[in-house]
């Protein structure tokens, strides 16, 4: 700690930070632009100037940029000094010389950092009397709008996009006051993290294009804290609504999870909620019209369940609560996971590894601090995007620890750090089936089949700890690489192993676990991150349940005749023929979901479920962190959370357990009691009767306009605002005006801080945890005394088969995930179907790029254009999984090539 | 496509620096020397060769005023407009060039012979006013000399 | 009078070849340091000589070197860069040295590189110096051939590579950290200091950037000693200095003279006084980014301290004369146009403030000035000062402006009151 004097008042602050951070942490309103807590200081905008005095006797002082000054003991500064204030006001004057002053028509208006800072400095009258420059704007794709005229040249966009996120296609052009920030030509921004530009940009240069389709000012949005449903990482989001439609997703700071950023799937994948294919009314297929009201639907479902021999099929994209109620309703023995059996087993294995192994799963924040990383079998950019972004930061860790600290440069001195470190990177090893976007950062890459990856992993583990099994038959190169990786991991302070379920291989998972456990056995603080298929795969695994195949068998063998399917499209979980058989055999099919799909078509009774923004619930992410998401806006009574439908059905059928519950909390308590590992769920959020100063927490800011008039075209009498029985939040602006607990922050706002930058005001220390601690409760911790830590299941090496290709799953951030793919902006980015094959194999098959290849997997025929790939191993091929146009099959799997295709015979040499 | 000779020259520059990127300005100079200016396609070719994205390279290219990202004439006239030449009356030279060539700053004659650009101090202030055409420096200029000077360039 | 730096420079003749240069004592300092002096001794000798940087800032060269990490723990790679990006308007002194005697520069660079134990060196030459480029290229090749560059120089075990890098424009490249970015193939934005280049410079490695004239002094200091060097001067600052004069004088040019020669001597004895029909009004003593001096200052000695005491800076020591037939507003506008164009665009006050100043001056010069424009000019001179901007470009730009507002205020006011330029040569802006 250090004592600094601000306008002669002493304050205790953290030594080593910069002065701007210190002042903001103390609550001073010091304006800034180019500094960003995640990206550090460069001293470009000159907005955060303060007076710094030599000592307590110095009365003149000198202007310094607070972001560039390190806090030191006995530092005397002034924020209120007239000269400093005047300078800060002039900085705004300079920045605004060419700004269009178009706030009224600018999407940023009302959540604009430039507006806030302008007001803060007191720069009210324009002194520049000459004409302004104008720029031509660019088309940047479906996610972002570009309006260069508003630019204040703070360089944040390029620093974020290029330096932080590794983007290649956005930069700053020209010099002096002709700077241009954009692409070198019009076109779709390539980065998977481009959407953050909308929040990184302090004004309206980069704005959310999807919001523009249904624009609403920030102050007119009803918002609630939520959790992203589009992958297993559980990034925290704020979802905003007006007039019953979801308008946007913005980042919800969580120091441990996503920090300040989101991926584009998370930010722009929300629009399926507003889709035309939403199920807005429950349907009973046996009646006409099919659409029915809530009560008839409930009765129908209840009678079906009462009458039948029921099984339930849960979902990894539904909350633990919804899954738990289904499990309770149908009984533990009749509850099946609505995922493929491979996925079921992998998720269970992952859970077991994390519970019984010695290595801890670090949070994303901790991943950033790892100083040696080994990724096995994952294309993180596409399977767990924000984890890829965290790994991108981790490769900076070793140079930061070594060079930068030696040169005595504070890490927040971003430009200086980058000038010193240059292109040097810490160790990162990637073993994957094909090339990934992170390869450019890698110390070494290894492209091979999942079995070969597992073998490499086992070999690494063996080199670290001899009790881990040896691998026979490695090539010299493989052995050398395994040695190198092992030595590097051993040499690191915080080595990290990343793997997951996306290669579809339990061997890869086991090998990863062996490495992590081997490191722990060598007293290394090793981390192990395992990605999982979906947002609540971990929660589902923790709930326990049977495989999907056993559900099929139960119905096909006549043990069950009624199926309740929770938020799930079974055609994405098992082969089409198999699912058809299931539905043919079932007498009654009850489906709860929010979007129409092939499975809802088969429902006899279809219950209109709330999408994530219309529901409360808890998800457990891959880290084992339980996180609460809140309903954003009230729905009509036709739509309600799946858990509520099932709860009400349970009440009607007088289920002995369910009938005792009265509230969402009762349900959660029952769950915690029945499944003790989920006990932590209760601590993720305050109870529904929680009040602050006797008041509820408002979802709308106090400037929310038109509440009493917004429905006046329908009815002039003002209806009573709907109440939310499940949590302590109101749907209006009425309620407690101060800061709510960290798990319930519906929006970031503070007096004078209308933009996302208000986040500063919610943190204990700028850039650190939220006040009261970052939200979420970790449910899984490693076993302090692990037993049988090493798996012995070293696989044989992969052997290609003639006339066959071993099909590996390939994932796409845009397209592979079911829900986001139904959002128009994301849909624009989905790649066309293809099959990726090894370039040498293509030669042998006489195939060129774009020609079609036909093959079949388990009887399902595919005919797809070929994409040549130089990294995918020979004898295998990659099939983009989950893409709307590609039929489901369990992967990896062998494909038989169509008979017309002949492997090219070896050329005969004749003499 | 970069020519073999261009590649050879660029590779030589790359051999003198620690990363391929670090030679990007040299690479642009080499290509501009051959082609007069850096077109979008030249930019993309150079970028690929030095392991940069087109945006990254264009960011560098557009920073420097002597990398031409628009076509120029066969000869580029750089007229010094800095202080000593100002004092010594470079404007008469400029105006004369405007009228003789029928172009202004930033423009190229219709026959593609000359492009006229203003340039910061040429460092020959004791012999102001001055201008450069291609690699040739002309000093102590008077309006009368201009015709003869321009005639040297076809 | 000794003129060590220019003694072998004859403007009409080709520069000395390596053989010729050796014949007149060239490269003796290289042999001397390699045989007799440790790097630290070279540093101390130069520190003692009180050689101050000739690029404009005037920092003690030996002291600057002493911040470079030395010894076994120092990074293996270190760099020396000769700053030959002479682009300060009105400045043409390094050109004389570069075109006139490139071997002297190479010799000085070897001395400097040896002193900090750098093994790679660059000459960062501005693009426009075509002749210099040709001569330096030839001289470097000769030096390699004669074993003054490359591996195991003169059998000493010391290695030094030297490369010529020519720039592609931009005044900013003259700022040492921006120059390093340019050398790295990046945009020539300046870097934050600290860390100083001595610790984290080119490619993040310890680096010294020295001006051409500074480097050219080194062989002579090594050969003749610190006391001799100090004795060359007529003032507290050591050595000789290349002084230049441009503008409406009879014989503009550049001369090597003892440090501390008075402005009047330079103007009258060397530049021949004002041309017929022109009267002296003021001068910028050391390039475009120095404050005006006027009649009352003419007897000041040209050295760092004396000029600073008069409220200006010696800068590069090449003077630009403002005569009575040139409009001071137009003169200052020309300077501000230059600075606005050459701003790198990194920090706000410089990027957006300088074009504002330029527009104000243009308006005033065109007779469209308003009384409040004077206030706007003044707040810029106040707030574009050192420390408020990221580097010294904008503060440098404000120096001639603030002093013009002091010495030629009436001319500015006359423009505004009379709504036209009394010199009526309206400067047309460039595109």
TrEMBL record, chain A:
GO terms for molecular function: 2 iron, 2 sulfur cluster binding; 4 iron, 4 sulfur cluster binding; metal ion binding; NADH dehydrogenase (ubiquinone) activity; NADH dehydrogenase activity; quinone binding. Pfam families: Fer2_4, Fer4_Nqo3, Molybdop_Fe4S4, Molybdopterin, NADH-G_4Fe-4S_3. Composed of 13 different subunits. Subunits NuoCD, E, F, and G constitute the peripheral sector of the complex. Residues 221-277 form the 4Fe-4S Mo/W bis-MGD-type domain. Keywords: 2Fe-2S, 4Fe-4S, Iron, Iron-sulfur, Metal-binding, NAD, Oxidoreductase, Quinone, Translocase, Ubiquinone. One of its GO terms (biological process) is ATP synthesis coupled electron transport. CDD domains: fer2, MopB_CT_NDH-1_NuoG2-N7, MopB_NDH-1_NuoG2-N7. InterPro entries: 2Fe-2S_ferredoxin-like_sf (IPR036010), 2Fe-2S_ferredoxin-type (IPR001041), Asp_de-COase-like_dom_sf (IPR009010), Mopterin_OxRdtase (IPR006656), Mopterin_OxRdtase_4Fe-4S_dom (IPR006963), NADH_UbQ_OxRdtase_75kDa_su_CS (IPR000283), NADH_UbQ_OxRdtase_ferredoxin (IPR054351), NADH_UbQ_OxRdtase_Gsu (IPR010228). GO terms for cellular component: membrane. Residues 1-83 form the 2Fe-2S ferredoxin-type domain. It comes from Pontibacter qinzhouensis. Its cofactor is [4Fe-4S] cluster; [2Fe-2S] cluster. This is NADH-quinone oxidoreductase subunit G.
TrEMBL record, chain B:
[2Fe-2S] cluster binds at residues 80, 85, 121, 125. Its cofactor is [2Fe-2S] cluster. Signal peptide: none annotated. It is an enzyme of class 1 (oxidoreductase). Binds 1 [2Fe-2S] cluster. The keyword Protein biosynthesis does not apply. Its EC number is 1.6.5.11. One of its GO terms (molecular function) is NADH dehydrogenase activity. Keywords: 2Fe-2S, Iron, Iron-sulfur, Metal-binding, Oxidoreductase. The keyword Zinc-finger does not apply. Gene3D superfamilies: Glutaredoxin, NADH-quinone oxidoreductase subunit E. Belongs to the complex I 24 kDa subunit family. This is NADH-quinone oxidoreductase subunit NuoE. It comes from Pontibacter qinzhouensis. The gene is nuoE.
UniProtKB/TrEMBL annotation, chain C:
Transmembrane segments: none annotated. Its EC number is 7.1.1.-. Its cofactor is FMN; [4Fe-4S] cluster. This is NADH-quinone oxidoreductase subunit F. Belongs to the complex I 51 kDa subunit family. The gene is nuoF. Pfam families: Complex1_51K, NADH_4Fe-4S, SLBB. NCBIfam families: nuoF_fam, PRK13596.1. The keyword Iron applies. Residues 329-374 form the NADH-ubiquinone oxidoreductase 51kDa subunit iron-sulphur binding domain. Gene3D superfamilies: 3.10.20.600, 6.10.250.1450, NADH-ubiquinone oxidoreductase 51kDa subunit (3.40.50.11540), NADH-ubiquinone oxidoreductase 51kDa subunit, iron-sulphur binding domain (1.20.1440.230). Composed of 13 different subunits. Subunits NuoCD, E, F, and G constitute the peripheral sector of the complex. One of its GO terms (molecular function) is FMN binding. It is an enzyme of class 7 (translocase). It catalyses: a quinone + NADH + 5 H(+)(in) = a quinol + NAD(+) + 4 H(+)(out). The lineage of its organism: Bacteria, Pseudomonadati, Bacteroidota, Cytophagia, Cytophagales. NDH-1 shuttles electrons from NADH, via FMN and iron-sulfur (Fe-S) centers, to quinones in the respiratory chain. Keywords: 4Fe-4S, Flavoprotein, FMN, Iron, Iron-sulfur, Metal-binding, NAD, Oxidoreductase, Quinone, Translocase.
């Amino acid at each position: 700690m250090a004592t600094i004097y601000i306008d002669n008042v002493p304050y205790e602050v953290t030594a080593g930070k910069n002065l701007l951070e210190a002042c903001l942490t103390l609550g001073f309103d010091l304006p800034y632009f180019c500094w960003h807590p995640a990206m550090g200081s460069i001293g470009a905008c000159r907005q955060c100037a303060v007076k710094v005095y030599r000592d307590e006797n110095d009365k003149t002082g000198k202007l310094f940029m607070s972001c560039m000054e390190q806090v030191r003991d006995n530092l005397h500064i002034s924020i209120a000094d007239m000269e400093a204030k005047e300078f800060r006001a002039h900085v705004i004057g300079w920045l605004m010389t060419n700004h269009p002053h178009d706030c009224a028509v600018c999407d940023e208006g009302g959540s604009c950092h430039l507006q806030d800072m302008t007001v803060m400095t007191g720069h009210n009258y324009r002194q520049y009397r000459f004409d302004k420059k104008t720029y031509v704007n660019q088309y940047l794709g479906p996610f972002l709008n570009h309006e260069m005229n508003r630019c204040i040249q703070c360089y944040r966009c390029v620093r974020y996009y290029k330096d932080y996120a590794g983007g290649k296609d956005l930069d700053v052009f020209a010099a002096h006051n002709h700077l241009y920030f954009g692409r070198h030509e019009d076109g779709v921004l390539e980065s998977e993290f481009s959407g953050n530009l909308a929040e990184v940009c302090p004004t309206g240069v980069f704005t959310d294009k999807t919001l523009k389709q249904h624009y609403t000012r920030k102050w007119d949005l009803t918002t609630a804290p939520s959790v992203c449903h589009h992958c297993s990482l559980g990034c925290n989001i704020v979802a905003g609504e007006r007039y019953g439609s979801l308008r946007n997703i913005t980042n919800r700071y969580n120091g441990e999870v996503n920090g300040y950023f989101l991926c584009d799937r998370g930010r722009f994948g929300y629009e399926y909620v507003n889709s035309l294919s939403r199920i807005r009314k429950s349907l009973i297929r046996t009646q006409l019209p099919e659409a029915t009201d809530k009560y008839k639907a409930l009765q129908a479902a209840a009678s079906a369940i009462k009458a039948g021999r029921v099984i339930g099929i849960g979902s990894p994209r539904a909350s633990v609560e919804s899954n738990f109620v289904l499990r309770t309703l149908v009984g533990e023995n009749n509850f099946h996971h609505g995922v493929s059996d491979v996925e079921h087993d992998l998720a269970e294995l992952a859970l077991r590894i994390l519970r019984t192994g010695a290595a801890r799963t670090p949070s994303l924040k901790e991943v950033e601090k790892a100083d040696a990383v080994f990724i096995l079998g994952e294309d993180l950019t596409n399977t767990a995007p924000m984890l890829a972004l965290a790994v991108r930061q981790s490769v900076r860790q070793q140079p930061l620890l070594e060079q930068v600290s030696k040169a005595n440069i504070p890490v927040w001195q971003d430009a200086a750090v980058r000038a010193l470190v240059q292109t040097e990177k810490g160790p990162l090893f990637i073993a994957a089936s094909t090339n990934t976007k992170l390869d450019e950062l890698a110390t070494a890459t290894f492209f091979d089949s999942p079995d070969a990856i597992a073998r490499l992993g086992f070999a690494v583990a063996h080199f670290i700890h001899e009790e881990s099994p040896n691998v026979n038959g490695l090539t010299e190169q493989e052995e050398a690489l395994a040695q190198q990786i092992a030595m590097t991991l051993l040499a690191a302070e915080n080595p990290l192993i990343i793997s997951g379920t996306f290669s579809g291989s339990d061997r890869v998972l086991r090998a990863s676990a062996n490495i992590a456990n081997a490191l722990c056995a060598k007293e290394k603080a090793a981390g192990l991150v395992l990605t999982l298929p979906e947002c609540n795969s971990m929660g589902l695994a923790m709930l326990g349940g049977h495989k999907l195949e056993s559900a099929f068998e139960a119905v096909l063998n006549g043990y069950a005749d009624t199926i309740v399917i929770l938020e799930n499209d079974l055609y994405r979980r098992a082969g089409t023929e198999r699912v058809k058989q299931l539905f043919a055999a079932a007498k009654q099919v009850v489906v709860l979901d929010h979007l129409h799909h092939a499975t809802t078509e088969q429902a006899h009774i279809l219950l209109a479920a709330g999408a994530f923004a219309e529901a409360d619930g808890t998800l457990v992410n891959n880290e084992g962190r339980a996180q609460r998401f809140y309903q954003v806006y009230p729905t009509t009574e036709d739509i309600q959370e799946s858990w509520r439908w099932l709860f009400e059905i349970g009440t009607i059928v007088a289920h002995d357990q369910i009938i005792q519950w009265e509230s969402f909390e009762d349900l959660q308590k029952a769950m915690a009691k029945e499944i003790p590992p989920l006990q932590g769920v209760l601590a993720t959020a305050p109870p529904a009767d929680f009040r602050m100063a006797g008041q509820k927490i408002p979802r709308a800011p106090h400037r929310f306009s038109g509440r009493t008039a917004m429905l006046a075209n329908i009815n002039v009498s003002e209806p009573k605002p709907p109440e939310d029985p499940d949590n302590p939040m109101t749907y209006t602006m009425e309620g407690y005006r101060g800061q709510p607990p960290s798990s319930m922050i519906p929006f970031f706002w503070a007096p004078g801080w209308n933009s996302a930058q208000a986040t500063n005001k919610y943190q204990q220390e700028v850039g650190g945890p939220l006040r009261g601690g970052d939200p979420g409760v970790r449910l899984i911790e490693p076993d302090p005394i692990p037993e049988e830590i090493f798996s012995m299941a070293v696989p044989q090496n992969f052997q290609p088969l003639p006339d066959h290709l071993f099909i590996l799953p390939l994932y796409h951030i845009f397209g592979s995930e079911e829900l986001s793919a139904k959002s128009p902006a994301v849909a624009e980015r989905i790649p066309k179907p293809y099959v990726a094959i090894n370039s040498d194999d293509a030669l042998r098959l006489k195939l060129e790029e774009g020609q079609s290849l036909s093959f079949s997997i388990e009887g399902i025929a595919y005919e797809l254009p070929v994409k040549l790939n130089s990294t995918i191993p020979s004898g295998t091929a990659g099939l983009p999984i989950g893409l709307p146009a590609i039929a489901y099959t369990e992967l990896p799997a062998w494909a038989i090539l169509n008979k017309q295709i002949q492997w090219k015979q070896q050329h005969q040499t004749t003499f | 496509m970069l020519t073999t000779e261009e590649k050879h020259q660029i590779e030589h520059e790359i051999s003198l620096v620690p990363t391929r990127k670090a030679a990007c300005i040299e690479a642009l100079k080499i290509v501009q020397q051959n082609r007069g200016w850096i077109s979008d396609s030249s930019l993309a070719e150079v970028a690929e060769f030095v392991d940069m994205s087109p945006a990254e390279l264009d960011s560098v290219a557009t920073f420097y005023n002597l990398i031409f990202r628009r076509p120029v004439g066969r000869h580029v006239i750089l007229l010094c407009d800095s202080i000593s030449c100002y004092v010594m009356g470079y404007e008469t030279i400029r105006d004369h060039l405007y009228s003789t060539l029928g172009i202004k700053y930033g423009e190229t004659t219709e026959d593609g012979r000359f492009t006229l650009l203003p340039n910061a101090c040429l460092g020959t202030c004791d012999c102001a006013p001055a201008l450069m055409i291609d690699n040739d420096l002309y000093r102590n200029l008077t309006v009368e000399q201009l015709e003869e000077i321009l005639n040297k360039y076809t | 009078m000794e003129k060590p730096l220019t003694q072998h420079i004859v403007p009409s003749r080709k520069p000395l070849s390596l053989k010729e240069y050796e014949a007149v004592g060239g490269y003796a300092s290289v042999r001397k340091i390699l045989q007799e002096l440790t790097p630290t001794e070279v540093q101390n000798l130069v520190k003692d000589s009180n050689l101050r940087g000739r690029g404009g800032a005037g920092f003690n060269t030996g002291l600057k070197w002493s911040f470079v990490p030395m010894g076994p723990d120092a990074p293996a790679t270190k760099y020396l860069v000769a700053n030959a990006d002479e682009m300060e308007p009105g400045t043409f002194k390094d050109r004389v040295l570069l075109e006139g005697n490139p071997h002297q520069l190479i010799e000085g660079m070897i001395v400097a590189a040896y002193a900090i134990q750098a093994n790679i060196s660059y000459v960062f030459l501005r693009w426009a110096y075509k002749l210099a480029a040709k001569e330096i290229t030839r001289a470097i090749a000769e030096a390699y051939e004669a074993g003054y560059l490359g591996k195991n120089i003169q059998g000493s075990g010391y290695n030094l590579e030297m490369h010529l890098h020519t720039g592609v424009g931009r005044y900013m490249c003259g700022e040492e950290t921006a120059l390093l970015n340019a050398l790295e193939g990046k945009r020539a934005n300046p870097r934050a200091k600290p860390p100083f280049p001595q610790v984290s410079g080119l490619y993040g490695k310890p680096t010294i950037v020295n001006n051409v004239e500074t480097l050219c002094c080194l062989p002579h200091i090594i050969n003749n000693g610190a006391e001799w060097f100090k004795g060359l001067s007529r003032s507290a600052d050591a050595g000789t200095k290349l002084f230049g004069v441009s503008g409406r004088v009879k014989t503009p040019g550049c001369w090597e003279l003892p440090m501390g020669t008075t402005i009047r001597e330079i103007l009258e004895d060397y530049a021949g006084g004002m041309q017929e029909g022109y009267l002296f009004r003021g001068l910028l003593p050391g390039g475009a980014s120095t404050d005006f001096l006027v009649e009352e200052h003419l007897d000041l000695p040209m050295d760092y301290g004396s000029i600073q005491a008069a409220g200006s800076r010696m800068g590069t020591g090449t003077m630009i004369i403002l005569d009575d037939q040139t409009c001071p507003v137009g003169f200052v506008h020309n300077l501000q146009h230059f600075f606005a164009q050459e701003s790198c665009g990194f920090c706000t006050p410089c990027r957006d403030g300088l074009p504002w100043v330029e527009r104000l001056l243009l308006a005033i010069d065109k007779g469209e000035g308003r009384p409040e424009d004077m206030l706007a000019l003044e707040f810029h001179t106040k707030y574009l000062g050192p420390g408020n901007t990221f580097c010294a470009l904008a503060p440098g730009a404000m120096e001639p402006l603030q002093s013009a507002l002091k010495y030629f205020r009436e001319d500015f006011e006359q423009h505004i009151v009379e709504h036209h330029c009394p010199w009526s040569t309206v400067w047309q802006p460039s595109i």
